[in-house]
Design brief:
By secondary structure, the protein is of the alpha+beta class. The chain is about 30% helix and about 25% strand.
């Protein structure tokens, strides 16, 4: 579980045959994105583009584009191993009830003794640009032909409240508006936006809210920036827990923030309280362009980086893309958290085609009538699960990781009139199908086998299953049949 930076992670990928170095000249304008999209679609390796036209920094894409690579990024051989550690963290608090679990979670992480450590000097500040800071030095990609410009897409965005508390690390895209101006695309429910509102209310004597954008460093930090942690829970402590050792930080040069000492690149600046600019369009993970909308502007005060910095980035768009594997990792790691609140849940699948919020398949241990309805409402009340549009609940013996099996059960076990719940709730702001921004319909489907109380007293048929002894005998004798 020893810490790693982006260099050691790249070396591990390369040693495992999971990385290719591209030495031919390529363009940051659409070409790299097209290559990366094809590699991910073909379940191919990560790519390090070493000869980007007009730039000296190499570009890394696809480093997280498989569940195996995600496990390595978290210092494990499988994501399920990490999920087991998360479950172990929560399990001792279950007996205390829901309230005890909620109150104990941040304290449990801090008790691990893995709070960040601050150092005086760091590789991320080997080169420092202040007066001559220019975003154009970075090989930032334009990914889709209709994009409004070039976007930073794999950023760790560091903010705090005006009192220096509630440090948050989020992943928000940033559009390049000029040599020292970036569009900060955070949604109103993001923790970075919450800190910004606090600054706008209580810290307006400052020139703007301090912000730092880190690229690279320990891959666990990139994942932690995407994790749906409660507001106030420090992503860096969570990263330390996942890694098994404290994150090393270094003070920024021009703003009162701390950033990863081992980052490849850091962009420092302030977000203006008044200035907003039209950001977008952007080819998004939904598979469609997000239309232009006004967002706050970050004014760059410094850019620091390693002497031989690597620029890590990602391409989002219609699945499968690299961000799908970051999302699937969250699904596996936070399943124990969901079980804490909804203990009858057996497994969860947020299928890739559901782009994180459109579909959820859930299996449960059913013990009483209408339990599936209870589970639906409980899940819609949990964090980002509130955005789920279509939620299907099936029995414990159904493999929710197999969408075909789930849909078979929907057809076989659900009656549209009796077993569907149509309600209204929060919508992801990127959901262009929503009748209005931020609110939309929700459909829950109870595809569990019905108990007599749910089926008007009628017995419910059981699915076909082979005789266990016969199946075992046939397996043993399969070669004898000559059917291989």
């Amino acid at each position: 579980m020893a810490g790693q930076d982006l260099r050691t992670f790249i070396a591990r990928l390369e040693a495992a045959g999971q990385l290719r170095r591209v030495t031919a000249e390529v363009s940051a304008d659409l070409e790299i994105a097209e290559i990366a999209s094809r590699l991910v679609a073909a379940a191919g390796p990560a790519a390090l583009f070493e000869n980007v036209a007009g730039h000296t920094m190499p570009v890394l894409l696809g480093a997280f584009a498989s569940m195996g690579r995600m496990a390595w990024a978290l210092g494990a051989e499988s994501v399920e191993d990490v999920a087991g550690r998360v479950a172990g963290l929560l399990r001792p608090r279950l007996a205390g009830g829901l309230g005890a679990t909620i109150k104990a979670a941040p304290r449990l992480l801090k008790l691990t003794g893995l709070r960040p450590k601050v150092v005086r000097s760091a590789p991320s500040q080997e080169v420092v640009h202040t007066d001559n800071a220019d975003i154009g030095r970075l090989p930032i990609l334009k990914c889709w032909p209709g994009d409004g410009g070039r976007y930073i897409t794999l950023a760790q965005v560091y903010t705090t409240g005006p009192d220096g508390k509630n440090r948050n690390v989020g992943m928000y895209r940033l559009q390049v508006f000029g040599p020292r101006r970036l569009g900060m695309h955070w949604h109103r429910d993001h923790d970075g936006a919450r800190n910004f509102r606090a600054w706008a209310e209580h810290g307006r004597d400052a020139p703007g809210m301090p912000v730092a954008v880190a690229l690279g460093g320990d891959p666990v930090l990139t994942y932690a920036a995407t994790a749906p942690l409660p507001y106030g829970m420090d992503e860096l402590v969570f990263a330390g827990f996942l890694r098994g050792e404290a994150v090393r930080l270094v003070p920024c040069r021009t703003v009162p923030l701390e950033v990863p000492a081992d980052a490849e690149i850091v962009i420092e600046g302030t977000v203006d309280f008044e200035e907003r600019a039209l950001e977008g369009p952007f080819g998004d993970h939904t598979g469609y362009y997000t239309p232009p909308e006004e967002y706050p502007v970050m004014r760059v005060t410094a850019i620091t980086h390693r002497a031989d910095a690597i620029y890590p980035t990602t391409v989002v768009g219609r699945f499968p893309k690299e961000d799908c594997y970051l999302a699937k990792t969250t699904e596996r790691l936070f399943l124990p958290v969901i079980r804490t609140f909804v203990p009858e849940v057996v497994d969860l699948n947020l299928p890739l085609f559901g782009v994180f919020h459109n579909w959820a398949f859930v299996s449960i241990r059913k013990t009483h009538p209408h339990q599936a309805h209870k589970v639906m409402h409980a899940l819609w009340g949990l964090g980002q699960m509130m955005y789920t549009k279509f939620l299907v609940v099936v029995d414990a013996d159904v493999n929710v990781q197999n969408p075909e099996e789930v849909l078979w059960r929907v057809g076989a076990e659900a009656d549209p009139k009796r077993d569907a719940i149509l309600t209204t709730g929060p919508a992801d702001v990127l959901d262009h199908a929503a009748p209005k921004s931020g609110a939309a319909g929700k459909l829950g489907i109870d595809a569990t086998r019905k108990l007599p109380e749910e089926a008007g007293g009628q017995p419910w048929p059981q699915p076909l299953r082979s005789d266990a002894d016969t199946a075992a005998r046939v397996t043993r004798r399969w070669k004898e049949y000559g059917l291989e």
